Amino acid sequence: MIQESEYKYYLSDDYETSVEIEKKRYGELCLSNQIVLFQLLFEEQYQICKYNFMEYWQTIFKVSETFRLDCPHDRKNMTLPSLEINQRILNILTSIQSYDDHIRHKMSKLWGKSSKQATKYTEMDSGLYAEFFSYRLLKRLRNYAQHYDLPLKCISYPVISVGFEPTQVAFTVTPIMYKKHLLEYDGWSTVKKDIEKQNEKIYISLIIEEAFRVFTSLHSQFRDFLSVTLEQSHCAIAELYESKEGRSENVLYLIKESGDKVIERQWVQYDNIRIIKELIDRGPKVEGISFSTTQLEKHLKGISRIVSDIRLANMKK
Predict the structure, then answer these.
(1) When you count CB atoms within 10 A of the terminal residue's CB, does the N or C end of the chain come out lower?
(2) How many CB atoms lie within 10 A of CB 94?
(3) Residues 85, 152: contact at Cβ < 8 Å?
(4) Which of 128, 209, 143 is nearest to 182 (CA)?
């Protein structure tokens, strides 16, 4: 068995230029590097979620524009978009779950399951879950979609007059879930009571819009909570590269050796800090995207003001 005193610790680069460092400094740099990698995953997972929300609204807009330009009235053309909208909803549900799973797992490895970081994240998530029905529903809706049925069962195509002279009309698309159908699933747990309190028609876009604001709030608040720790880690890695100490400016490794055997090796990338800053600078826009498109009323030829709900053929009555 190798004794701790037999280990040696180095900073190395691609040119195999190595500088021996103390065990304590090695440990501190490894921790800083892992925290930077954790934040990179944290920000990337959020961006993936944000893109999925964005793609949902883009799909709603596309369907709305198709309706405005093509004016389909047949059942087939008006119900087929539900498949694509369902796909976008499922992407949102999956990415939120992935975000939560990854963050909890990485925090557990980095700081421990009972650490103040893990505890604070759970407190924040639980608080928002208790406060907002939309957040509770989306978290439980994944199980519904996985084990029972697709969320979307109806699309409404409202055509509504807006503004004054010249009069215009707004074309929108309203995806709908039905309370009765949702309650046929027996895996809602405590969310079942929330669903029972809702109107028969549950408008998915309103749920998704609020849930995005809630999810973004969780992400931003937890980043603020970690801000001191994250900044310290950024500084430690930045100073490591700025000091150079005769090494390459581009790639550094932290290496733990015993004799000629490498026991541990970590790649320290300064670019990770730059990428993190760029991701944060993109910044979330927490307001929902308007998907109404308008056209002068005089250009409408026989289109009714409100197009009736079109239900899928497999909708249970």
Answers:
(1) N
(2) 16
(3) yes
(4) 143
Output the 3-class SS for 106-159.
Answer: HHHHHCCCCCHHHHHHHHHHHHHHHHCHHHHHHHHHHHHHHHCCCCCCEEEEEE
Is residue 299 situated within a structural domain? Answer: no
Shortest CA distance to 84 belongs to which of 51, 59, 64?
59
The answer to the question of residue 281 being in a domain is yes
**Distances, alpha carbon 276 to alpha carbons 41, 46, 55, 101, 223, in Å:** 9, 12, 22, 20, 12
User: Alpha-carbon distance 172 to 160, whole Å?
Assistant: 8
Domain count, the chain: 1
* Domain that residue 18 falls in: 8-153+176-285
CB-CB contact of 216 with 248 (8 Å): no
pLDDT tens-digit profile, the chain (317 residues): 455 568 888 888 766 678 888 899 989 999 999 999 999 999 999 999 999 999 999 999 888 888 777 766 665 666 678 889 999 999 999 999 999 999 999 999 999 999 999 999 999 999 999 999 999 999 999 999 999 999 998 888 877 777 666 667 777 888 999 999 999 999 999 999 999 999 999 999 999 999 999 999 999 999 999 999 999 999 998 888 877 553 555 678 888 888 778 888 888 888 899 999 999 988 765 554 444 555 544 444 333 333 333 333 333 33
The DSSP H or E segment spanning 169 is strand 168-171
